[in-house]
Design goal:
The chain is 11% helix and 42% strand. With 255 residues, it is mainly beta.
């Protein structure tokens, strides 16, 4: 790591090197542990050419109840030539009446590669919440030198039909995705992942390969634990193919 700056409580912990000095594991820490009404968090990351980074956080992000204003998180990551990124944050938990604005942008340099995931939990099931009221806005995009690889825009409300529709979330309270961007992302790689994706009343997953080197795995679940396990399995299969490196489970996952 060459530079580290922050304003407010958001911080970057000391870099770790469990895979040797060539791969920097970095933990982004938000001590408040949650997003209150009107809070804004902005994360900007720049990776130089040939750099290799694993970025994560120590705990789930909690989005608290809001009466009026949105809370927002904006993540912008820029990768230099041949840089490699694993973006592996824990899940986002949306409390009842939460208003969350989630923005993510990734720019890939020539021959750069990236694997990432995001998870959204609608309501605290243990508290009896069903997330009948609230709003989640998503605006994510991945671009490279040739142009736009992927864009995702969504506006999900507590009473939306999207939450129950078969072509939407199908009534599942948890939704996640694993994505990969690299020159060698292709249909063959997607077909390698497909047999590992279940389709049950508890956990469902599917994979799609898009043009120009991008694929996405979408998962819905009744419980967070099996969804986490499935996403880790997808990452375990993707990492050797995308980065040419063996998967190294994060120590945070065993805490």
């Amino acid at each position: 790591m060459t530079e580290r700056r922050h304003t407010g409580p958001l911080q970057v912990q000391k870099p770790l090197y469990p895979e040797g000095r060539s791969v920097c594991h970095t933990v982004i820490l938000h001590p408040p542990g949650g997003m209150a009404e009107g809070d804004t968090v902005k994360i900007a990351v720049t990776q130089g050419a040939d750099s290799k980074t694993v970025l994560t956080s120590p705990a789930a992000a909690k989005w608290y109840r809001s009466r009026d204003k949105f809370s927002s998180q904006e993540v912008r990551i820029r990768l230099g030539e041949r840089a490699q990124l694993d973006w592996l944050p824990p899940e986002n938990i949306l409390f009842e009446h939460a208003r969350a604005d989630f923005r993510f942008q990734l720019e890939l340099g020539e021959e750069a590669s990236a694997i990432g995931w995001e998870t959204f939990v609608f309501g605290r099931r243990a508290m009896g919440e069903t997330w009948d009221a609230g709003t989640l806005r998503i605006n994510s995009q991945v671009v490279n030198r040739q142009g736009l690889l992927w864009v995702e825009k969504a506006d999900i409300t507590g009473g939306s039909r999207l939450r129950t529709a078969t072509q939407g979330l199908g009534g599942f309270p948890i939704a996640g995705m694993v994505w990969a961007a690299a020159p060698n992302c292709n249909q063959t790689l997607a077909e390698m992942l497909a047999p590992a994706l279940p389709f049950t009343d508890v956990l469902r997953g599917g994979v799609t390969c898009l043009n120009r080197g991008f694929l996405v795995v979408r998962v819905v679940a009744q419980k967070i634990e099996p969804l986490r396990d499935l996403m880790v399995r997808c990452w375990t299969l993707l990492r050797p193919a995308i980065h040419g490196r063996d998967p190294q489970p994060l120590r945070l996952w065993s805490v």
